Fold these 2 entries.
Entry 1:
Amino acid sequence: MTHHITLIPGDGIGPEVAEATVRAVEATGVVAEWELVDAGAKAFAETGELLPKAVFQSLHRTHVGLKGPTATPVAGGHKSINVTLRKKLDLFTNFRPVRMLPGLKTRFQDLPIDMVIFRENTEDLYSGLEHEVVKDVVESLKVITRTASIRIARATFHFARGHGRKKVTAVHKANIMKLSDGLFLKCCREVAAEYSEIQYEELIVDNTCMQLVMRPETFDVLLLPNLYGDIVSDLAAGLVGGLGIVPGANLGEHDAVFEAVHGTAPDIAGQGKANPTALMQSAALMLAHLGEREPAQRLQHAIEGVYSDGKNLTGDVGGASSTTEFTNAVISRLAC
Ligand code: NAD
């Protein structure tokens, strides 16, 4: 069966990790027809649009995308392409499994870290509703709705039950944002009550950060609104070797876009140094989503094998290999 997949290479290191990932996916034997569409700087240079219609037209056809990172200017400029894409396609679940890879030397290498982050993907302070009330006084609206909170909580508990997970931790700041985070918690509690076999706990976000550093192995599944989810995802990535490692998926009712947690890494772009592990692991999630479970597992095992072996790792995780050398090592293992 041929799978039609929208490929958005993105900016910075995006095209490098996307090319590596396409090679690895094809080496699994899965037959994929990639619909290549640009979003970000290249698209803007060619079409005058950062997120051209062609991206949505392709995703409406394929319903599955593999996306590299796209740049967002700081304190001004255009809106985030990611936020726009997630909202327009209603990709309300951001799913990020955070696991220690075998053999990888990190500060926490002795701990069995294996947690899954569920981040609400469509609202909160990412509503983009900001305005200047009077000169030098700015308001930014944090939007929390019952609909979005219930559906991310349901997605989280549904996953936890389906994967034999024991505990869900809802993360909040409802001691200060009593209405908005208060509503988020109320919804989490309501859904938790339907899953009595799963332990449910609540943690304030600042305490969560401290506990994640002190006792990361005690976390199982985390359920967070958008902004805390974004921040905690990078913190968690740091526990298991950095941003080059952690994969992700943006999931909606009809569409799914798989992308790494990391950004465009402008400091190393174009140098052949980027670690493609995060996008490759995202592609393994994508293959499973497409029903290609066995190739997904083989790709995951091949990546883990390269880490166990430790000879072909990129600089961000203590190695000296290039993106291509790492990719060749993964492909060699797939060929075995
Ligand atoms: P970043 O993730 O791009 O980089 C942070 C650090 O991690 C850098 O030192 C970088 O070299 C390193 N790093 C990241 N990914 C790596 C990889 N695969 N291999 C090796 N090293 C890697 O974060 P930033 O610098 O804060 O953001 C840069 C740009 O990326 C910004 O414009 C931001 O908006 C954008 N961004 C996009 C996404 C996305 O498209 N999903 C996500 C986050 C940030």
Entry 2:
Amino acid sequence: MTFPRSFVWGAATAAHQIEGSPLADGAGPSIWTRFSHTPGRMTNGDTGDVACDHYHRYPEDVALMKELGLDAYRFSISWSRILPYGVGKVNERGVDFYRRLVDALREAGIRPMATLYHWDLPAALDDRGGWLNRDVADWFAEYAAAVFHALDDGVEWWATLNEPWVITDGGYLHGGLAPGHANLFEAPLASHNLLRAHGRAVQAYRALGKHAIGMVVNLEPKVPASDTADDLAAARRADAYMNRQYLDPLFGRGYPEEMPDLFGEAWPRFPAADFDVIAAPIDFVGINYYKRGVTKNDPSHWVERASLVRVPGSIYTETDWEVHAPALTDLLLWFRERYGAMPLYITENGAAFSDPPAAPGDVVEDPLRVQYLREHLAALERAVAAGVDVRGYFVWSLLDNLEWSHGFTKRFGIVHVDFATQKRTMKRSALVYRDFIAASR
Ligand code: FCB
């Protein structure tokens, strides 16, 4: 395959999924600390209390990245380590953890990309309404400024939010993710405040930072299950809800015209001035791509009135996601067509499969993940060849980790983690990725 020499090859993780020790060194609890300690919320009652123990084992993990020849590493910062109460006095011991991590990465020649918010809101702010309180935009800007001040020397890319759609759909509409609300009326308010908070952080960065800042969205091309008018309309609604709801305002277009119909009486009136904040110019967009969504009309489903159909003959992952790489090419072409030229990074892409246990000294064979990786890199190459300005790719994930409410039951890592011993073992996919990166230089 041919990619530009400057193309950035990386792997991604998130704080709550790998770090463990959520309350160490003066950190405050986050909504995920609470959620995972609420009976019935997590598969097997799993929590992030230990996870991959990356908080202590980060030198070993950076060494693994170096062994793989990664150019870059995308991680997230836990807000309540920096500001235990969400706002107020900075907890320097929490900041120091990320200083050590960034230093270790730089020493290994790995370029850091940091996400400010990968779902772990300080619990103290949730007590004040969390993403439903308009003040959250100020709180987030205050936190962002503290982090920029401490880490912008070493961090080359900043992502404000990871996946505002999942934060809202999982956290406020259906409740399967923290903070676990299921409320039609809250969802659009949470989304809007997430976007406002993003804009405020971007504005803060222009005054303080010297690198690049953008947002990470998860995009899922919605393909109608049939060519009936009902399914075509359902795919459009689902696309508006999941994809355009976030991208359109980011690019200064306001919300998609479908939104008032989707939310009905729950759709609020938003102050016009908010949209200028939301559309503050950014330097890149991060796209998380896992799957397409073959969509049929389904009035029983809240908001999008659509649901996904199973495609006969397709491979499905352990999270029941269809493997379909060509949609990644289509998605990138669609993005350029709709939003114009913008530097893009694939900030997550990967698959959960149930891998065999790791035997001492062995490589874990994960043929389905290897195939997933190969197909998606080929699909990415096609988009690059067509001239889409994609500049990097981050596989999800470096390590098997806490897959949110699924606990440790879904393994996405290219490196296997034995959660009883914390032993890391390379999977075949990691070695294939390593060789691929080496060959592309
Ligand atoms: C994405 C999340 C990431 C991980 C993958 C599998 O939605 O950003 O943290 O859970 O899915």
